[in-house]
């Protein structure tokens, strides 16, 4: 009897994750449905101004979405080469001793709170870039470019560690075969290991993209808060989806107003996008695990 | 070895051309290696400049004022301002988070690793769900806290709400790390225990868990250090309000270090930027201490084995 009781208790603990997911969905769905009673879903998805805190309230999510995509694109452009380069070095080049020393340092980079990255982007990267900016239009005080740079570095460890896992999972025999044909180390890395680990590497990139989309503090601090028009130019400050949620959520918005509910609608959109990306990433990871394990 | 093997199928290669090619491959290889090292260098250079920057920027405020003084609302008294309420708030919130998420996470991991029958759909669903939860943006957990825990459960913007949300946020980290630690315990230990007539729970409690202590402890510390640095969900949960007192219980108002730093960053005063840098150094020191404990535990376990 006691055995069964313990098992039941452990099972209950394991279901808390499911309850959390259900809770998140409930928390998002009801206010979002409510929100779409006030604002049409077409206007929400196609409108080009997001001004819930202005007198003339408009609820077009495109400015937030575009800013999110701009930041994510630049951050990915930075993180993918750096992360994959680091991963290839750690998996194929570094001696075990060097690897043991370097990996914890990457973990340190992953462990730094995002508020610190945001601060550094705003007060250090920002002025540096403004000083050396070649063009006439100087970047604004808060802008998407500096947020993207900090975010790019932030997701390097995510990309690097998953990509390295995928490359280490490639069987030794493939490498040995290639070396036996007198391939150089670079040829083995780029023409044998990299293609063989491709699904895992893509999974690493997708996960990095998903983290960039969901990151909040860096863009709230350094990315700017303008959202009344669509801005493609990264040197201007513009609010992303997460930055809007964080800035609107700071003030005590009155319960039940459209402004309050708009936080949940944007949150639902964010949840759907990151959820889809995470599913893609798991599928890819499972593929490389299935092939080699 | 003079034959260019990468293009072996093209047949005969003139020796001098082959030698040239080989030299080019060797040069390419060196450049490639340098490029890879450069990638790591950029990441570490960023890390180093960030650390040096905050230490220099916060240097003047790195003293006891930081932890003995309360934040000051008056611009003229920025010099006397400290972060005590944020530090005590962090300790309260993280202490409570540890009390809630570690037992739950470890129990869930024991179920999934030792008890769950993987052919059952609901067990696979539990597992998939935890993986998924690990990828949900932290601000969405803040929305869960705002919409359900603070409002529907009526817990309000208090320490307990913050701790529940952070517990749920880092639960997948604890579960995944503990499962790995349990998986590393050799099956022979379990079989030996069963052979002596122990029940399943006796085996798990007295053999498997003790053998997995170091992995579990390391994972738990890493999960808590993630919770300490987390600011996004707490922004939605009332931590941004100006708090000048230490928390007195789990239903107190609160603020935490990352949020206090966020508030200081937003202010236009230069003195407060200095204080923000000092606050960041304090936060990083706490994180380094926690991680060193994790490393010590990991190394000690390695020595015993």
Keywords:
heterodimer; A: 293 residues; mainly alpha; MetI-like fold; 76% helix; B: mainly alpha; 12 helices; 72% helix; disordered N terminus
Tell me the span between the first and last alpha carbons of chain A.
39 Å
The largest pleated sheet of chain A is described as: none
Main sheet summary of chain B? none
Q: Compute the number of helices of chain B.
A: 12
CATH superfamily of the largest domain in chain B: MetI-like
Q: Name the CATH class of the largest domain in chain B.
A: Mainly Alpha
Order of helices and strands of chain A: HHHHHHHHHHHH
* Shape call of chain A: globular
List low-pLDDT spans of chain A.
Answer: none
Q: Separation of termini of chain B? A: 46 Å
Model description:
- The complex is a heterodimer of chains A (293) and B (305).
- Chain A is mostly helical.
- Chain A has a single domain, classed as MetI-like (MetI-like fold, Orthogonal Bundle).
- Chain A is built from 12 helices and no strands.
- In chain A, helix 11 packs across helix 12.
- Chain A is globular.
- Chain B has 305 residues and is mainly alpha-helical.
- Chain B has 2 domains: 57 residues; 230 residues, MetI-like fold.
- Chain B contains 12 helices and no strands.
- The longest helix of chain B has 44 residues.
- Chain B starts with 14 loop residues before the first helix and ends with a helix.
- At the A-B interface, helix 1, helix 3, helix 4, helix 5 and helix 6 of A face helix 1, helix 3, helix 4, helix 5 and helix 6 of B.
């Amino acid at each position: 009897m006691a055995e069964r009781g313990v098992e039941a208790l452990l099972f209950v603990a394991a279901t808390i994750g499911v309850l959390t997911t259900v809770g998140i969905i409930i928390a998002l769905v009801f206010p979002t449905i409510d929100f779409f009673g006030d604002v049409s879903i077409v206007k929400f998805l196609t409108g080009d101004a997001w001004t819930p805190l202005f007198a003339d309230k408009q609820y077009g999510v495109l400015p937030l979405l575009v800013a999110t995509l701009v930041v994510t694109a630049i951050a990915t452009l930075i993180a993918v080469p750096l992360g994959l380069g680091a991963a290839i070095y750690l998996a194929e080049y570094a001696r075990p001793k060097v690897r043991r020393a370097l990996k914890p340092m990457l973990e340190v980079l992953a462990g730094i709170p995002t508020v610190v990255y945001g601060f550094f982007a705003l007060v250090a990267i920002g002025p540096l870039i403004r000083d050396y900016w070649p063009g006439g239009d100087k970047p604004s005080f808060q802008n998407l470019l500096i947020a993207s740079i900090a975010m790019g570095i932030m997701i390097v460890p995510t990309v690097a560690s998953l990509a390295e896992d995928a490359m280490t999972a490639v069987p030794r025999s493939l490498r040995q075969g290639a070396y036996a044909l007198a391939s150089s180390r670079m040829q083995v890395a780029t023409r044998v290991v990299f293609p063989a680990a491709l699904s895992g590497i893509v999974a690493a990139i997708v996960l990095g993209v998903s983290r960039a989309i969901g990151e909040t503090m860096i863009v709230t601090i350094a990315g700017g808060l303008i959202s009344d028009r669509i801005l493609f130019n990264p040197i201007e400050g513009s609010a992303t989806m997460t930055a809007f949620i964080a800035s609107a959520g700071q003030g005590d918005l009155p319960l039940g107003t459209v402004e309050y509910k708009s936080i949940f609608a944007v949150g639902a959109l964010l949840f759907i996008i990151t959820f889809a990306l995470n599913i893609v990433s798991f599928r890819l990871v499972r593929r490389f695990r299935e092939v080699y394990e | 070895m003079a034959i260019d093997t990468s293009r072996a199928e093209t047949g005969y290669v003139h020796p001098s051309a082959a030698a040239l090619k080989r030299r080019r491959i060797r040069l390419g290889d060196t450049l490639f290696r340098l490029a890879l090292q450069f990638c790591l260098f950029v990441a570490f250079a960023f890390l180093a400049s960030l650390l040096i920057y905050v230490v220099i920027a916060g240097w003047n405020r790195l003293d006891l004022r930081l932890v003995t003084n309360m934040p000051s609302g008056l611009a003229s008294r920025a010099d006397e301002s400290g972060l005590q309420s944020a530090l005590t708030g962090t300790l309260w919130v993280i202490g409570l988070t540890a009390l809630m998420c570690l037992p739950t996470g470890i129990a869930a991991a024991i179920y999934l690793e030792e008890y769950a029958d993987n052919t059952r759909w609901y067990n696979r669903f539990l597992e998939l769900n935890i993986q998924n939860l690990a990828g949900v943006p932290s601000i969405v957990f803040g929305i869960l806290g705002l919409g359900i825990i603070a409002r529907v459960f009526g817990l309000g913007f208090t320490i307990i709400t913050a701790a529940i949300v952070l517990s749920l946020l880092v639960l997948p980290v604890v579960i995944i790390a503990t499962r790995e630690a349990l998986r590393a315990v050799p099956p022979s230990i379990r079989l030996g225990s069963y052979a002596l007539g122990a029940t399943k729970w006796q085996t798990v409690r007295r053999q498997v868990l003790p053998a997995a202590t170091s992995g579990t402890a390391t994972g738990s510390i890493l999960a808590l250090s993630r919770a300490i640095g987390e600011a996004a969900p707490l922004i939605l949960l009332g931590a941004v309000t100006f708090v000048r007192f230490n928390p007195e219980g789990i239903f107190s108002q609160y603020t935490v270090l990352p949020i206090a730093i966020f508030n200081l960053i937003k202010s236009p005063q230069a003195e407060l930027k200095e204080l923000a840098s000092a606050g960041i150094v304090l936060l990083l020191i706490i994180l380094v201490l926690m991680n060193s404990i994790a490393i010590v535990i990991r190394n000690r376990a390695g020595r015993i084995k």
